[in-house]
From TrEMBL:
Top-level taxon of origin: Eukaryota
Domain Out at first protein BRICHOS-like: 3-86
Protein name as it appears in the record: Out at first protein-like
C-alpha cells in the first residue's frame, strides 16, 4: 500500500497566453514527474523521468511519456491557476 508523502519538491505554473498549466514534482527516489495540461488542444501530457539502478545494470535514467485527450472541464483553468499563485 502506498502511503504518500514522498514528494520532495512541487512546482505549478500557468501560462494564460498559451492556455497551459504545468505541474512538476520530484519524489524521494529521484523520479521527476511533469504533467502538462494544454487546454487549447485538449491534451494532457505526462512525462516521468525515472532514475535507473546501477546495481541492476540499468541505464542512468528512463523517460516515459503519455499523451491523453482531456475535456477542459476536468481541470482548473490556466487563468484560475495564475490567479491562485498571486
Amino acid at each position: 500500500m502506498h502511503k504518500g508523502g514522498d514528494v520532495v519538491q512541487e512546482n505549478i505554473t500557468a501560462n494564460v497566453a498559451q492556455d497551459v498549466v504545468t505541474l512538476e514534482f520530484q519524489r524521494n527516489d529521484g523520479t521527476l514527474i511533469t504533467q502538462l495540461i494544454d487546454f487549447s488542444r485538449e491534451v494532457q501530457i505526462l512525462k516521468a523521468l525515472v532514475l535507473g539502478e546501477e546495481e541492476r545494470g540499468q541505464s542512468q535514467y528512463q523517460v516515459m511519456c503519455f499523451v491523453t485527450h482531456i475535456s477542459k472541464e476536468e481541470f482548473i483553468s490556466s487563468d484560475a491557476i495564475s490567479k491562485l499563485r498571486q
